[in-house]
Each structure stands twice: as C-alpha cells, then as structure tokens.
C-alpha cells in the first residue's frame, strides 16, 4: 500500500500547494506545457519541504504530478527527461509495493514508439496491459488506449495477426463500455481503420475494404457537411484497396472524387493530395485504365507524379520522407519505361 500523507489542512502552505496544482492542471489542459511544468514543480518542491516522503499535493499524489510532468516533457519532445522522470516514479513505487501503475509503462512505451524502437515499445505496452489486471475498476478508456498502442506497435514489427487481435479486443471493450454514442462512434472509426490496415497488410483485401468502408460511412454520418482530412484519408484507403484488387477504374474514380473535394475546401495541408496523385500515377504506370492508350497513360503517370512533387515541395517535405522516396522510385521507373514522355 502506498505510504501517502496529505498536507495538514490547517497549514496555510496547503492552500498554496492546492493553488499551484490547480494552475498546473489548467495550463496542462490548455497545452501550455512549460507553464504547467513550472507550477507542478513548484507544488512538488513545497510539498517536499513539508514532508520528506510520498505526499499528496492538493488533490493528486506526488506520483500523479511527476507523471504529468513526464507527459509534458514527452509532448515537448524532451524524451530523455521524460524517461528520467518516469524512472524516478518507478524507483519510488517499488519501495511501496510491486505493482506499477499501468499508465507509467504505457507512457514509456509511447516514448519508445516515438523513437521508432517498436520492439521495446511493445514490451512496455504489454507490461501496461498486464498491469491493468492488478487494478480494480481500471478505467475502460485507458485500457482501450493501451490495446490500441499494442496494436500499433505490433503492426510496426509486422506482427499483423497480433495487431488484429488487439484492435478487435479494443472494439469489444468499446462495445461493452458505458461511453456515450458519439464517443463510441469515434472509437469505432479509429479502430475500424486500424483493423483495415491489419487486414490490408495480411493480404485480406476484401476484409480491408469492408473495415475501411465501415469507418468511412461512420465518419461521413457523424460529421455531415464537414470535409475532414480523416474522411479523405479513409476514402483514399478504400481507393488503394480497390487498386490492389485490380479494380483500377473504380480506384481512379475514388481518387478523382478526393481531388475534387480538396479543391472546394481550405485544407490545413495538401499532403493527402500528393499521396492520391502518386496513387493515380502508379495505376497509370501499370496501364490500369481500360479506357486510355498506353502512351496517354504514361503521360498521365508522369504528370501526376510531377504535381505530387510540387505539393511535397510546397509542404517542405524532406528527401527522406516516405512520400518523396516513393515518388522518386516511381518517377525513375516511368522514365526508364518511356523516356520520351
């Protein structure tokens, strides 16, 4: 059992600690990370002056405050500092018992994931998930988040079957939760998309198409009249799947729809358009359309590729960005096949 002691309510210093903690939480919600960290640190320093062991500051424990500070450093990209803060929490936790709060291991996993150390990330996500079994009434939303992270890490190391299991498990948790209808639909969109990715990676194109379509329809119905990046990405996934199924004209029709929609809206960036243009370029390169001559398709392939590069340049994508690398490979193949275009 954690050895905690609340600051004496009669001590005026407690009011200051509570105020600092509230200021920290408010700034954290507003994403004012540096200010939030400053207030949390001041609250911890004052609490430490009052008691020389684990202390509750205001309405949260010292562990919660340190965890929030680690989260702030993670969001700011200070990954080593975040790790050191979490390691400090684990050292203190082990003194008071064997169980580590699952959210600690989950955040460590997220740090490793952001460093592209996917095997280590998966280990810590797994520790977090196993840890949920030791916590009575563990929050359902956090468990879903951990399962989602486990699925993502598994996909990155090509454990696609495992990823599928984790995402489906998360769907079951959502279905059995007491979330409101809106929140459930948001989670379903997110998870159906990931299930679609897993099926696509496994070569189950029919099931990938089914889940992408389910996610797309949910998104369209939930945000009627709004043209959002997510719904266009889902439409693109459907088009790419149709292309891999050999339904090239159907895919081109979908991609044309996306380009038309993009023209009518002020989007935050045009990278999705560049991706779609590369998708179209690939179809034209393999002469996927049944309505055009080979020469015309090669010309369209290089035209789409050039337009994609204009967008990537405008978006200031680096040469090592996957989209730019994909475009360079495609451009080289087209030039080799049809140098006079």
Automatic annotation (TrEMBL):
Coiled-coil features, chain-numbered ranges: none
Keyword Repeat (UniProt): yes
TPR repeat ranges, renumbered to this chain: 189-222
UniProt xrefs under Pfam families: TPR_6, TPR_8
InterPro entries: TPR-like_helical_dom_sf (IPR011990), TPR_rpt (IPR019734)
Record keywords, A-Z: Repeat, TPR repeat
Record's protein name: MalT-like TPR region domain-containing protein
């Amino acid at each position: 059992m954690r050895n905690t002691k609340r600051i004496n309510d009669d001590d005026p210093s407690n009011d200051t600690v509570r105020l600092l903690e509230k200021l920290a939480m408010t700034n954290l919600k507003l994403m004012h990370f540096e200010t939030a960290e400053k207030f949390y640190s001041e609250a911890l320093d004052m609490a430490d002056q009052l008691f020389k062991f684990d202390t509750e500051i205001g309405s949260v424990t010292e562990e919660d405050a340190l965890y929030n500070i680690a989260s702030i450093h993670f969001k700011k990209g200070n990954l080593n500092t975040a790790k050191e803060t979490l390691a400090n929490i684990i050292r203190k936790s082990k003194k008071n018992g064997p169980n580590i709060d699952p959210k600690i291991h989950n955040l460590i996993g997220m740090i490793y994931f952001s460093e592209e150390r996917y095997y280590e990330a998966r280990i810590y996500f797994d520790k977090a998930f196993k840890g949920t079994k030791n916590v009575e009434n563990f929050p359902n939303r956090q468990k879903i988040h951990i399962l989602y992270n486990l699925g993502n890490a598994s996909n990155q190391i090509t454990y696609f079957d495992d990823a599928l299991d984790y995402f489906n498990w998360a769907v079951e948790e959502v279905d059995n939760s007491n979330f409101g209808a809106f929140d459930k639909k948001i989670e379903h969109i997110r998870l159906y998309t990931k299930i679609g990715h897993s099926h696509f990676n496994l070569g189950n194109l029919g099931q990938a198409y089914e889940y992408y379509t389910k996610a797309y329809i949910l998104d369209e119905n939930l945000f009627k009249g709004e043209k959002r990046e997510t719904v266009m990405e889902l439409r693109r996934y459907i088009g790419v799947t149709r292309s891999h199924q050999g339904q090239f004209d159907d895919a081109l029709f979908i991609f044309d729809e996306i380009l038309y929609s993009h023209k009518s809206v002020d989007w935050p960036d045009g990278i999705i358009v560049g991706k779609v243009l590369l998708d179209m370029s690939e179809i034209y390169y393999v002469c996927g359309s049944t309505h055009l001559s080979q020469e015309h398709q090669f010309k369209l392939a290089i035209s789409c590729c050039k337009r994609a590069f204009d967008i990537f340049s405008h978006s200031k994508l680096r040469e090592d960005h996957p989209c730019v690398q994909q475009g360079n490979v495609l451009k080289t193949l087209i030039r080799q096949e049809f140098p006079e275009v």
